[in-house]
Every structure is written in structure tokens, then in C-alpha cells.
Amino acid sequence: MLLRSLLLLLILVAVAPRCVADDGYRLWLKYDLVADAGQRAQYRSAAQFIARNGSDAVLKTAATELQRGLQGLLGQPVPLMAKPESTKRGIVLSIDPSANVSGSSANREGFRIASQGRNILVTGRSGAGVLYGVFALLRQLQTGQVISGLNVSSSPRIQYRMLNHWDNPNGTVERGYAGSSIWKWNELPQRLDPRYTDYARANASIGINGVAINNVNASARYLTPEYLEKVKALAGVLRPYGIRVYLSVFWAAPKVIGGLTTADPLDAQVKQWWAAKADEIYSQIPDFGGFLVKANSEGEPGPQDYGRSHAEGANMLATALGAHDGIVMWRAFVYKAGSSDRFKQAYEEFKPLDGQFSPKVLVQVKNGPIDFQAREPFHPLFGAMPKTPLVLEVQITQEYLGMATHLVYLAPLFKECLNADTQTKGPGSTVAKVVDGSLDQHRISGIAGVANIGTDRNWTGHPMGQANWYAFGRLAWDYTLTSKVIATEWTKMTLTREPQSVATIVDVMEKSRDIYVRYTTPLGLHHIMGQNIHYGPEPWLAQAGRPDWTAVYYHKADSAGLGFNRTATGSNALALYSPGVQQAWGNAKTCPLNYLLWFHHVGWQQPLPTGRTLWNELATRYYTGADSVTWMQQRWASVRPAVDAALFADVTARLAIQRREALWWRDACVLYFQTYSKQPIPAPFAPPARTLAEVKTLVDLYQLK
Length: 705
Ligand code: GCW
Prior knowledge:
By secondary structure, the chain is α/β, with parallel strands linked by helices. The protein has 3 domains: 25-153, Chitobiase, domain 2 (2-Layer Sandwich), CATH 3.30.379.10; 160-494, TIM Barrel (Alpha-Beta Barrel), CATH 3.20.20; 517-564 and 601-703, Alpha-d-glucuronidase, C-terminal Domain (Alpha-Beta Complex), CATH 3.90.1330.10. It has helices at residues 2-19, 37-46, 57-74, 127-142, 194-205, 225-238, 253-256, 268-284, 310-321, 342-350, 411-419, 431-435, 466-477, 483-494, 499-520, 552-555, 579-585, 596-599, 614-637, 645-677, 692-696, 698-701, and strands spanning 50-53, 80-81, 91-95, 111-116, 119-124, 151-154, 160-164, 210-212, 244-249, 290-293, 327-331, 361-366, 390-395, 446-450, 561-562, 602-603. The strands form 3 sheets. An 8-stranded parallel beta barrel has the order 7-8-9-10-11-12-13-14. The structure holds 4-O-methyl-beta-D-glucopyranuronic acid.
């Protein structure tokens, strides 16, 4: 009797997690039991033991992760052995620095997964390589692939694959929409929230190997001994996952916490202060990654305060790092007040410095020239600084893309930039090749994503936002992966394996970014969003702290037409690109419509290649974009039987808000631009039921100010 009750209890415990709502905490590392019994049996027979050759800390993590994953997927424990068992089939993990993996021979993070005899060998060039190999193997199981006869190798195309947290000491996150910062400074270093480990696991599973843990609008506090102890504790959690910690630094720290009277990079005491600080950090955190710097940008102090250049500032920090194995990532996100066109500012400041940066410095450039808009042309600095390794910075958090409310899958945006052809060394000089260092033979390379992570139980607020974190990591590892492949992997691991639903969800994800662009900023409109919080439409915004914080600065609507003339007859920002790009974008008649209003002021009645006038095309895109959200809702409704009920309801509700807000964007923009075009809303669309004055009040109604 007792046995029977125990058995019953066991069965209940085993099935219970499936009845409980999925709170999203486990991300794509769910490791639920493989449902197909035949497949499960195959996996079980191939994974009867795990053998670990060595005691490297990251190798140990790899073995633990594999055990954990297999336990869930196979529904039974898999023993960890010191060496392979000759009579059984299993998985053997080992480090071989000269392992034959694809990619550059200098690469320490590659792995190979190969069937050999009875076993599957996962061999990495380092412990981290094995860890990445283990996650790749688990992914095969999670997505239902065959694991017999495997012979695959992979290595990252980009060396520094970073998350940038814009987290503040007080727990807030700049542009964070998923709760507070996951770092609990008040508890550190004594208490290590288990979430830190889960965070490390998630990052390692997608190949992220560095995190800048604090906001680039940095507090000097992080460099105090008190905080360094806390940072050290975090580094201790991340290290076994192959992840290094970096700090964003406040340029004027030598003054604020160092008691100096200057932060001039050429001042001997300042140099000395930073060198001592670097030594202090490395004495605590021997594998510290380095510094990330926002200087002379949006009010942050910097070397220019002392008449010094960005290169002089960055090089001083590089020198301070001395022989330590660290780097400086110096951001190029600068725009001085009063510049003729903000588009050109970073280029004008940084291009002349090419060749002046020390070998430890990488210049970090946002994907586009303005600021993480829903669509931007690639930043003209890509290809223009061949002597400097450039880090591509993209934003995973959806500052301008509907925060945690709108479903926008970002892989297509990231890839659009990576695939863009700068043509600076002939056709095929893509941004990706600039960034991975191959175009100009750089020894170091990097990519950074501004994190969308917070204390929300599901990490990212919008459940689908997890896909953007995932996609960033996967593309940082291998930018040749298609956004569809990535979406499919993520969906199968996170939401459902039911084929029709997977196809539906992936289709919605793939189209979502273009849909967002259509109902917010079609045809190359940009920066017409709500002031400060960067949410909702505010194309009428004409007064702000500075002209380039308004909307009218960017769309330049007037009775003649719409768009920013950046050709030779305008700001001539177009001239910053190579001749081939200038040719592709320079003529309003042939410029791709996605970039049209980025570069041209186009007449309202100008016919476009679509056969419609500019005005009619604009209105059409706003209407069809907003209607496409209804399509997204319908598609999502169809996957109900295949996904977790709570998650289904959450996404359904967010889509309803997205639809409401798409209409808000549509009505605001067509009604406002109509005051200039003086044209009717084209058939078959019905004019908005509300007036412009009514729409303008919505910003207050939603309490978005
Ligand atoms: O996109 C803008 C944001 C700021 C941010 C800045 C930057 C961290 O609105 O919040 O500051 O970019 O990238 O430095």
C-alpha cells in the first residue's frame, strides 16, 4: 500500500511541471522530457554515461550542464564517469587545444562533436569550447534531431561576444522594460542570487563570453573597493561559464573617487590612478575583461573636456591595463549639440582618428548613425576605419521598438546590418566582415548587445523578447545563420515542438519587424517617437532640449513633401559612404524605399516604384502595417493548443495592446502628415475616426510622459 502511494506520488511529481503554468523562467533551457518515446529511447541508448577528461572548471560546468539537460530530456539520471565505460555508449568530454575545428586556428572556443565507436565525443579547444559543444549537442536533442553519426564543428566568428547592461547601482535599468536590475548590490558579495547562475547558463548556451555589468552612463562607484568586492563575487559566478566581467567606467572617476583635481588623460597623476586601479581590479578579478567607455556623449565627461581626443583617452586606459589581458571598448555614440546633421557626427569625430588607437582598443559603433531606430542604414563608420577594430553595438532591449509590449523579433534587424555591404573594399565588404575583423585582418573583434533582461520572472517582460536575447547570441557566434533557423530553434526549445505551430510562430516572428516598421516609421522615417521615453508616436514634437531630440528635425515635413535631404543638395551625409552605396541610395527615384526618407525630401505627389504617390504609399503602409497586427493576433490564436496556456494568454494580451498602439501610431502619423500633404486617405482605407487633437492627448492618457 505504502509502495503504491509512493509510486503514485512519484508519478504526480513527474507530471506536475506540465500542469503548472510555464512562467518562462527556464528560457530555452527547459529540458522537458522528450515526448516521442522512440526518439527518447534512441537518445537514452546513446547517452548512458558522461565521461569528463580533465578537471578544468569550465569543463566541469560542461559536464554538469550535460547531466542536467539529459536528466530532464531523457527522464533519467546519466552518471558521470572518470573515463568511458567500454561496454556502454556515452558522451565523452575533453579539451584538445589543437582540436580540428572550423574557423581560425587562433580560436580557443571552437568545438567538434563527432561519433566515434560507441561514443559521442565533444572536444573543445578549451573548457569553454566543450561547454559550447555541450549546449550544441543538447540543442540537437531539444529540437528533435538525430544524434547518431554526428560530425560537426563550429567556432565563433567574433571573439568578444558581449552583453552590455545599462544597469544602475540603485537597481534601475536604463531603457530596461523587464523589471529591475538582476544585480542585487545590497546583497553582494555575501549573497549570490541563484539567478546569477541561471543567467550565466543562458548566456553560455548561446556563446556569450563577456558582460559589461553596468550602465555606460556609469557611476564611479563601481570602481570603489567596496563595489569591486561585489563585482568580484559576480565574476566568480560567471567564470565557470566562460564569461568575463567588464565594467563601464565613468571618465571623471579619478576626480570623483580618486581625489584628483583633473581627469585629463595626459596628466601623470591621472595615468597613475588608472594604472593603479587596473592593478587593483586584476588583483581581485584575474580574468577581468576590460573597460567600456561612453565619453563626451550626452553630457558624460570625457577627454575632450581637456582638449584631448577620443584616441588619447582610450589609449590612456589601454596603457593603464598594461600587461593585463584586457581591452578597452570606446563608444562612438557621440553627437555634439549644434551639429548640422546628427547623422554625421560620430563619423566626423572618429574617422580622422583611424590609426591612432592602441592595439588594445576597439571602437564600439551602433548599427546605425542615429540611435537604434526600427530601421537605419548601416553606420557609415563601418568600412571607414580600416585600421581600427570596430565592435558592432545593437540593442536587444526594445527602446524604440515597443519596449516589452510589441512583439518584434530582432534577428532580421541585426542581420540587415551585418549583411549590409559597405563596398569599401569592393563588393562583399559587409559590415559582418568589418566586425569579425576579416576585411582588414584585425586580431581582435567584438559585438555587443544592450541587454533586455531584468527581474521579471520571465527575464524579458515580453515572453517573445527572450528570442531576441537568444538570437543575439547565436548571431554573435555565427552571423551566417538565418533569422529563420534561429527563430525555429528558439521556438522549438521554448514554446512548442508541434510542427504547424512552430511554422506559424516562426512566420509571425520573421515578419514582425517589418510590420513594426510599417505602422511606426515606414519608408525611412525615423525618430518621430514620443519624447524621453521613446514610446508611441509624437511626430509633431518641435520643442526639446536640443533640435536633434525633436521629431521635426528628422522628418522635415512641409507643404512640398517629406524626408531628410542628406544628398549633396542637403546635409550630404550620403557622402560619408563609399561611391557604390552613394549610387544605390543617392537618387530618390531608385533609392530602396526602406531608406527613401532617410536620404531624400520627396514630394507628396511623387510617384514611387510601387505605382503609388509618396502620400498614398505612406498611408498604405501605416494602414496595412496596423492591420498586419490583426494578422499576427489571428496567427497567434491558432497556436493555442500547442503552447502553454499562461504564456498563450500573456502574448495574446500583449498583442491586443500592440494592435491598439499600432492604430495609435497609424492615426497619429497619417493625421499629422496629412496637415502637410493635404491629401485624402486613399481608398480602400477609411479615415481615422478620431481627430489629430484627440490623438495627441493619448500620450498623456497612457501616462507616458
Ligand atoms: O539610445 C540612447 C538612449 C540613452 C542611452 C544612449 C547611449 C545609455 O536613449 O538612454 O544611454 O542612447 O547609447 O549611450
